[in-house]
């Protein structure tokens, strides 16, 4: 039977419109969604270099030059020019890239994907505190003894609490606010640039190379300099929301504003050579006293928007991981009708708790810099690995692939080495967070793999004659008119032995019509289609759902659509088979059976398998059940425990005594 579209195929008109046309509205939306993280980096990047280091002309020119060329090499060349062309039907991000590369059948390729995803989620815990903290601490320019921690915590808790309502309404303000913010960055930069034009020498990469190769200890400054590009990975991940072309246009504007502001900061530093900055915030030193309050308010709004974009990006990342079976099943809500906007309650409060912990631990945004950047560097390196495979998939000349690996392993490897120096000062926080998130992913993947290996599949054809007899055997009490099982068998000719066991051996279940539902997660993000194949006329139907990795797996809702279609095409009759009810055209009942596969004999597994299986079991218990994941109704659901593994135990063989 041909594939049938559930709702609108693989892309909505608005979605394809974003990816094929450049519009002023699309570019404005991009400003609000994509650039929050990278846009707020001027608040803390240069400050970190000179907080404890004397301000010298060589280091000022070298730092600003390194920042400009980092933005060029990492953000413009790698992400805007290369990575954004490695899209998956308009979607970007490390997991979307992996989804496209799955066809290569490289077994270990999931490792860089999950390592990068875990590191990016860890960064999502550190970015909101350092961004909001950097803005709020500007109030100390007015009141030096102000305790900013309660204000920062209040803003962050309010932000996470608001997530459950969605951001459709306030999201309309993001673009205009960020437009004002970037305009302020540019104006501040130009004003100070006009006082010290000699800073324009920093446009020459010579000064960055000279600083790194001749000044003792300058290499370690890369740990702070790298912070200018921490939002590049988020830029790639958010491509699906606004479209590649709109990012091309808006990034030109954003980069000009960023470069002007960094040049302005460099110009200010050249006029204040000598002692380190200490506790002073360089960014707010650029602002005249009369403009401090409105500037701090605008910066605070910008950092809240940056945090919101990162939180939404984390939700999207986990949903992609969930659909790719990289993450335990968790509840996903859709608070608004805005496409792609979702809310993951469990992740939201994990991020909230993590952000609160980071603020309470470090107290000052300047101290958070030690934990910031290390995780993103790892993500960038993993993206580089996947991009090399993407270029291989596109049959690019191997020489170009080797050049890409050489350049970006050198650049990003240098940033990683510099960031590792900050490990004892707080970098261990991001490593610990990333390791915990990676452990969750590895345990879930390995647990599923173990269960798949232990699952026995049997030929369905062998059970069809018995199924037909059972369906009409009135000596067996009818379990349901329509009985529905969820199967993980990719082969329509095979079915889990557990399902056969449930139907025939564990309290035989007679039904008029049996359904086998199978979900296939496609590499395309928004596919919504199904096939329905009668395997036994009037008795057994297999339905395959083809759903994109960003589509909500609301199986209960989708199954109703399938049944409606099949009834309209007269392929099935769902009228009750009871004579008294059939005469009144009453629809027969539907009963879902979910099989909970247990491991009662785990001692037969290896120590590694037992550990992964148990950890995976804990994650299954903490996460959502299959019932919640698929939106199944309690009133039409039966859950059965079926042992996955019943091994032979020859050492327990008994002999019968006379």
Overall description:
55% of the residues lie in helices and 10% in strands. The protein is α/β, with parallel strands linked by helices. It folds into two domains: 4-8 and 16-447, Amino acid/polyamine transporter I (Up-down Bundle), CATH 1.20.1740.10; 456-645, no CATH class. Strands 1-6-7-5-3-8-9 form a seven-stranded mixed beta sheet. Strands 2-4 form a two-stranded antiparallel sheet. The longest helix has 32 residues, at 292-323. It is elongated.
Keywords:
10% strand, 2 domains, seven-stranded mixed beta sheet, 9 strands, 658 residues, two-stranded antiparallel ribbon, Amino acid/polyamine transporter I, alpha/beta
Q: Please name the CATH architecture of the largest domain.
A: Up-down Bundle
* CATH class category label of the largest domain: Mainly Alpha
Radius of gyration: 29 Å
When the domains are counted, the total is 2
Give me the secondary-structure category. alpha/beta
**Distinct helical segment count:** 27
- The third-level CATH topology of the largest domain is Amino acid/polyamine transporter I
> Any idea what the shape is?
elongated
**Global mean pLDDT:** 80
Q: Beta fraction of the residues? A: 5-15%
CATH-level-4 superfamily name of the largest domain: Amino acid/polyamine transporter I
Biggest beta-sheet profile: 7 strands, mixed
Helix content: 40-55%
Give, in spatial order, the strands making up the sheet with the most strands.
1-6-7-5-3-8-9
